[in-house]
């Protein structure tokens, strides 16, 4: 690595170490940043935000992304259609809404270079790319400093990158020199000085000279990276089980857990009887398994972890206590919308339907059983739509004694808004993309005496008409909501078939 690269990276790391951790959090439809105590350090004014990296955080205002510093000052004005985290002083951004138009910017927002092919983010001063089916690595100035003769590769980790083909793997340094060569593929990357590999049919860990340092792991079939001095090991199969070893190869957490994540900041999440809990590095249960979901990309990085429990979503500390929860209950009750910055939605094209059942737990009916399935829209009951617009609530109620099974795709049900055109014909105002992947399709179950709530946008337009919703329970069964009055733009009508776009 060149000397000025090293000085630059050292300065960035020093900056990061003095910055207190901040976490994106949403309140009244806008995102700000809280501290480890759950207090807003940067007020919620953004439409979307990502975590801080190297002193800056990407934030979205309307459709464009920019970057703020830890005081909330806008350092790079919003002008990008997507914005990645900073690493090695570079961030990967999109310059166009559609089409390949990537660029790397510096921390002043200036474009350093535009890759002509798909390129990953920078890691340790290099960004992985592919040129004519050969893995290569850009340096910070956008120069293709390393071009290998292998078709596949990983980003640099601890000064070493793994590249491979069908019958061999190589580990290279930042000069592009091969330091270790192994037969086959599927070997791990280096983390904390070790890499899990398979040599002569045996699972082992090697150091950066290629020397085997842990070789007593024949009982497992998959080795994972070290993190916090611990590495997950797994017996693969339909009922695969996992546990953890230390750097001496000693089993600390028994290989008997069906779902367990890597250690982050001293804790590892595990699943038991459908609930998530946390182990410490001694293999003891540090936080009892009571959580419905754990976001483990960041783990307890900075001291907080994002979880979901009993309908609540938010951050917990390492004692398992919520320090901040996101208020998602507004969908199920009457709220004061004056605290929200809402507007009616004016659009001149159809929308893609977004009726997600993820994080949308069914609620229990408090009224008498209806003895029917009902789809109901209440135009007088205002709720936020997409966090920015006034919306009406859509109730899907199962008042029968049977569980209602609804066809779904990637967590979305086909619940679409329709309106009467000038000829009195019902036309769609929303589209629904059919996936070509068979794994995308599944069933959503709504138990007896339960209901879902979704949000319907309140449109602003010059055409007054009648609206309703259509739900496809399956290919052969549809139900419709009550009809209500509203305004739209005539250009919102979908002219083609569903799934066309």
UniProtKB/TrEMBL annotation:
InterPro entries: WG_beta_rep. Pfam families: WG_beta_rep. Coiled coil: none annotated. This is WG repeat-containing protein. It comes from Fulvivirga kasyanovii.
